[in-house]
TrEMBL record:
Bilayer topology: Multi-pass membrane protein
Keywords tagged on the record: Cell membrane, Membrane, Transmembrane, Transmembrane helix
Positions of transmembrane segments: 23-46, 52-73, 94-112, 151-173, 220-248, 260-281, 288-306, 312-337, 349-375, 381-403
Organism, scientific name: Pseudomonas fluorescens
Keyword Transmembrane helix in record: yes
Listed name of the protein: MFS transporter
Pfam families for this protein: MFS_1
SUPFAM superfamilies tied to this protein: MFS general substrate transporter
Single GO molecular function: transmembrane transporter activity
Intracellular or extracellular location(s): Cell membrane
Length: 413
């Protein structure tokens, strides 16, 4: 029997590393700014007379930029100092937000805002692989899951606290200040990142190429654990969770009230905080297939509660389960990529993951909204529960057919 103290030891080891604490503080500040901006940006656009279509174009620009940046980020993370690249991307995102503030204040055409947020999205795409590689360089291998869990915990915690506190005051005063604060937090993050040791510097004389950027696909295909993990990501993160964000607000509002969706969103954030801790305590990344099956089944149950639940507590419980699943899987999957990928290819593996998820998300957002409007929003959530259950069954069957028995046993025990 493993004691609680032993299960918490990865947290103690990760938080005992001073550079990681600085990285956590810096990235936590930018996460808090992002949470405030997410609440403030649409209100700022509304007050400036822009409709929902403009906000849609802006979010699409962020998504497209993330896809573009992911490929470049994968190569840079494996070739250059990830610390230095992260400083540049944080600075670039801070400047993009300051440019957005200037454009809103001066009443510029919304097309310039789309351009600013395209650059912002490129910064996101480049930074994701670099942040993963930097984490590997800073922490010992057995503390990686705690490092990923801590990052996810802070991200979800600020997503709950800041929009409902500081974000409300800023929106009531002037929402443009929320965008400005977000920009400034990126400069703070860059300052903290600059204090980190310059480890993991990889120099290469090979030319940049799209073929090299896509080498992460080869790494994933040749590793049974990564391949099954990638398939589970397609079920949990790419297919089902975006449907929750798009369809559930309408389903919950129709069956209960608009206020209930706010409670469900808060419950999802609370569940995500719990999920990030559970994966660390259970060492879920060491049993990736078992984690995938658990997350898939819980997600199916969550969508069924959201689609069929007749009481408010059912909807809130379903939303809580969605948050637990999201954070549990993202924590375990990020750690699995870090531990199963060759160090020289980790950035490219993360880049492929970011490229696929960010590239497919807009289509899922659009498709789920269309399907929800045709067949009904509650019915779409119920259908998603079935898809999640079937996808989970396919993952189990695939692991039984293609994974060696010894590896499969390690992944589920």
């Amino acid at each position: 029997m493993i004691s609680i103290k032993e299960r918490l030891s990865p947290y103690n080891e990760a938080l005992g590393v001073l550079p990681f604490r600085k990285l956590l503080i810096g990235q936590g500040l930018s996460m808090a700014g992002d949470a405030i901006c997410l609440a403030a940006l649409p209100i700022a656009l509304i007050r400036d007379g822009f409709g929902g279509d403009v906000f849609g174009f802006i979010m699409a620009a962020v998504g497209v930029g993330t896809v573009i940046g992911a490929l470049a980020g994968g190569m840079l993370a494996d070739r250059k100092s990830p610390r230095q690249v992260l400083i540049y991307t944080d600075t670039a995102r801070g400047l993009a937000q300051l440019a957005a503030v200037a454009l809103l204040v001066t009443g510029a055409h919304w097309g310039f805002l789309v351009l600013a947020y395209l650059i912002f999205g490129i910064g996101i795409g480049v930074s994701k692989p670099c942040a993963q590689v930097l984490l590997v360089n800073l922490l010992p291998k057995k503390a990686l899951v705690a490092g990923n869990g801590a990052m996810n915990f802070i991200d979800n915690l600020v997503a709950i606290l800041f929009p409902a506190t500081l974000g409300v005051f800023i929106i009531l005063w002037d929402p443009v200040w929320g965008i400005l604060i977000d920009g400034l937090t990126f400069f703070c993050a860059a300052i903290y990142t600059a204090q980190l040791p310059n480890v993991g510097h990889h120099e290469s004389e090979e030319e940049f190429s799209l073929r090299e950027a896509l080498n992460g696909i080869t790494v994933v295909v040749n590793n049974a654990t990564l391949l099954l993990g990638f398939a589970a990501t397609l079920v949990v993160n790419v297919l089902c969770f975006p449907i929750f964000l798009v369809v559930a607000p309408y389903a919950i509002s129709q069956r209960f009230s608009e206020d209930m969706w706010g409670y469900c969103l808060a419950a999802s954030g609370f569940g995500a905080c719990i999920g990030s801790v559970i994966t660390v305590l259970a060492s879920g990344h060491e049993r990736l297939v078992g984690l995938a099956v658990t997350c898939g089944l819980f997600l199916a149950g969550a969508m069924a509660l959201l689609g069929l639940g007749t009481s408010a507590w059912m909807a809130i419980l379903g939303a809580t389960f969605v948050g637990i699943v999201e954070a549990s899987w993202l924590t375990g999957w990020a750690t699995a990529m870090q531990t199963h990928s060759p160090e020289k290819d980790l950035g490219k593996v993360v880049a492929v993951d970011t490229f696929v998820t960010s590239g497919v998300h807009p289509f899922i957002y659009l498709g789920s909204g269309v399907v929800g409007g045709i067949v009904g929003y509650s019915q779409t959530l119920t259908l998603t529960a079935v898809v999640s259950a079937v996808g989970t069954l396919l993952i189990v069957l695939t692991s039984l057919m293609f994974m060696p028995r010894s590896a499969r046993n390690d992944q589920v025990q």
